[in-house]
Specification:
Four Helix Bundle (Hemerythrin (Met), subunit A); 5 domains; globular; Alpha-Beta Plaits; alpha+beta; 6-stranded mixed sheet; Helix Hairpins; 5-stranded antiparallel sheet
């Protein structure tokens, strides 16, 4: 994390979060308005507000390069806002998108680099200035040579004192002693008040660009004159602002009354008040709610004005989640204590059932806190499609469904890269290059890419599909054969197995390396990142019709419902979501195939049998099928029957990853995904069914 001025460390996380949120909102507005072909007044005002807020908060945190970058973007939209009849603003989109990308990249550097060095944005700033000049030139043509001034272009001359009507309110705000940068704090407060009221005047007037005003504000306070339908909302905004010690209503003063006000005496036409009463300000929490959360709080908080939604650092949620996991493990250790065997403890078992109920509720609550919708990563794909449409010259629509589906925050963070690669794959490989090819196949000239998500039995299924040319399995096999990637004779590969070869490292169907493909790393990254989430990815395609990439991921990674089994004295846990059936068999029901080994027929379908004691090389006395039990497990449309000694029972378990130094042994590929601590303190290994079947 980058270093900031002393005293500002607590605000850095809030700044990063709010700036990232505002930039995502900016992208969404730009994409929507570009598609519509015009800006509405509401769009322009919202964009201007975003740029204004990001500029002010960057200045307050001391990130001068980001402040300048946002300022130049704000200049452009000031001109657009003031001159709504500009004939052509299409060039603005690419320029502002690039500015937004650079801003996001800089935020990433601030988050990740301890020795953060500000980036030189002189090139993009020059382009933004040129863009503003182009807009200004068009404005001059419209207004017969009179161009509106660009905000912030220079310090403004001192404004003479104004007089206001009786409906206006003037307040003087006093900031906490030693708060520092009072001019920027005044600027941020001014922006907040503008959301509630029409600000008519402020003194000093040039707080944004003149650091010398900080000393004056520290001594005399910051004066704001506004008109609002509900002035109480403005007062609450001031009371809740950061570093505000107090404020006072000073009515509408004339210049002659300034000295009286500064000395603690307020006088108007009706009355004279000595030492006006000041209202104490409530300090704002370090992690302030983002704009969306604040709006939700306003809607759900009723007339009380209390904030009902807050932002919480993810590290704290991770700590809470870990503690809940330890509570579940400890509960299991208490209830399964071997010293209790054979004892008739009715009261204990009743209390244990109540404890289990409460821990289940606690776990559900903590999990729900960590659950976030997929709308974030889904909406980011709009930008990917938009940029590739322009560069590849393909007419494509992105369709999004089920973006309100929620998954654990840690999983959402790992989905951005896979979704990006899949959408790029659909755009580059999937959608036909020429519209004539689509017409020949009886399709609409405009292609589509569909992103959908849905919940299904403890999993989230995400599908990325296109209506393009599909994947030709013969071409895939040709390339895999040339590269020596086939692990069995070519004629033994099914169509689906051939298509799924594209997920192998280094595989690409493109013969030439382009900006978007040809290096053989895209689908490999997808598979690795999805497997990190405990999920799977399957390719389904039909030549000439289209391709679907189906991702299955768990709702959460840390706590699962598992079935405990025993194999040669070793305890294994299998996720219940993978188990379709468990049953006893006799030896005469077993089919012995010379190529596929032992199999069993269930409802007309033959399934291979895997003896776990042989698979994991564990000595076991249970080798006859009559003495053990079979579990039918399924993943990625592949099924197998696992033979074990016995079932122990269902248990909620906390997944613990293997230590890093185990990584050299590739344990996951061997069919194990982690371990868990049992009630008696022993360790149970968690079976990775997908890799167990695949390998």
């Amino acid at each position: 994390m980058a270093k900031v001025e002393p005293g500002m460390e607590a605000m850095l996380d809030t700044y990063l979060f709010e700036s990232s949120t505002l930039l995502e909102q900016l992208d969404e507005i730009l994409l929507r308005t570009e598609q519509a072909g015009s800006f509405t007044d509401e769009d322009i005002n919202e964009i201007f507000r975003i740029m204004h807020t990001v500029k002010g908060s960057s200045a307050m945190m001391g990130f001068e390069s980001l402040q300048k970058l946002a300022h130049k973007g704000e200049d452009m939209f000031f001109l657009i806002r003031e001159n709504t009849n500009l004939p052509d603003t299409s060039f603005v989109y690419d320029l502002v998108f690039r500015m937004s990308d650079l801003f996001k990249a800089e935020i990433d550097l601030i988050q990740t680099e301890d020795d953060y060095v500000p980036t030189d944005f002189s090139n993009i700033i020059a382009e933004l200035e040129n863009g503003a000049a182009m807009l200004s030139g068009e404005a001059q043509a419209i207004e017969n040579g009179t161009a509106p001034p660009v905000p912030g272009a220079g310090s403004q001359p001192a404004q003479p004192a104004k007089s206001f009507d009786k409906d206006c309110v003037t307040i003087r705000v006093i900031f906490e002693h030693g708060a520092e940068m009072e001019n920027l704090r005044a600027f941020l407060l001014l922006n907040k008040i503008k959301e509630e009221a029409d600000v008519l005047d402020c003194s000093p007037a040039d707080v944004e660009n003149n650091p010398e005003t900080a000393a004056y504000i520290a001594e005399h306070g910051f004066r704001i004159t506004f008109k609002a339908e509900d002035k109480e909302n403005v007062f609450k905004t001031v009371e809740n602002a950061l570093n505000v010690e107090s404020y006072e209503v000073v009515d509408n003063k004339t210049p002659e009354k300034e000295k009286a006000a500064d000395s603690g005496v307020v006088e108007d036409s009706e009355h004279r008040v000595n030492a006006p009463q000041k209202k104490p300000a409530e300090k704002e929490p370090a992690a302030a709610a983002p704009p969306a959360a604040a709006n939700a709080a306003a809607q759900h908080g009723g007339g009380s004005g209390k904030q009902s939604i807050i932002s919480v650092n993810l590290v704290k949620l991770d700590q809470l989640h870990d503690i809940v996991g330890e509570i579940i493990t400890t509960e299991s250790m208490v209830i399964s204590n071997p010293e209790l065997d054979g004892l008739q403890l009715e009261s204990f078992h009743k209390a244990a059932r109540e404890l289990r109920k409460l821990t289940d509720e606690l776990q559900d609550t903590v999990m729900s806190i960590r659950m976030v919708p997929l709308s974030g990563p889904f909406q980011k794909m709009n930008r990917i499609v938009r940029d590739m449409k322009m560069k590849l010259g393909k007419d494509v629509d992105l369709v999004i469904e089920g973006e309100t589906t929620e998954v654990d925050k840690s999983i959402v963070d790992n989905l951005n890269d896979p979704l990006m690669h899949l959408v790029r794959n659909c755009m580059d490989h999937g959608i036909e290059e020429h519209a004539e090819d689509r017409i020949t196949r009886g399709k609409n000239t405009k292609g589509y890419i569909k992103l959908s998500a849905a919940n299904a039995s403890g999993e989230v299924i995400i599908t990325v599909s296109d209506d393009g040319g599909g994947i030709d399995p013969e071409k895939v096999l040709d390339k895999a054969e040339r590269n020596g990637m086939l692990t069995k004779p070519r004629n033994e590969y099914s169509e689906r197995e051939a298509q799924n070869l594209i997920t192998l490292p280094g595989f690409s169907t493109n013969e030439e390396v382009t900006e978007y493909s040809g290096r053989g790393v895209g689908m490999d990254v997808v598979k690795q990142n999805i497997e990190k989430c405990g999920g799977t990815v399957v390719v389904e395609s039909k030549v000439g019709v289209g391709t679907s990439f189906i991702i299955k991921i768990p709702l959460t990674l840390a706590i699962i419902e598992g079935m405990e089994i025993e194999v040669g004295g070793t305890i294994f846990t299998i996720p219940i979501s993978m188990i379709k059936q468990s049953f006893k068999v006799t030896s005469d029901q077993i089919i012995r195939d010379t190529q596929r080994g032992e199999m069993i027929m269930i409802r007309g379908v033959c399934y291979p049998i895997m003896r776990l004691h042989e698979r994991f090389n564990i000595p076991s006395d249970v080798t006859n099928f009559e003495d053990g039990i079979l579990l039918l497990v399924e993943t990625e449309n592949k099924s197998v029957c696992l033979f074990s000694d016995k079932l122990i029972g269902e248990q909620q378990v906390v997944v613990k990853p293997f230590p890093p130094y185990f990584g050299r042994y590739n344990i996951k590929a061997g069919g194990l995904s982690g371990c868990t601590i049992m009630g008696d303190g022993s360790i149970a290994l968690i079976v990775d069914v997908a890799n167990l079947i695949e390998n």
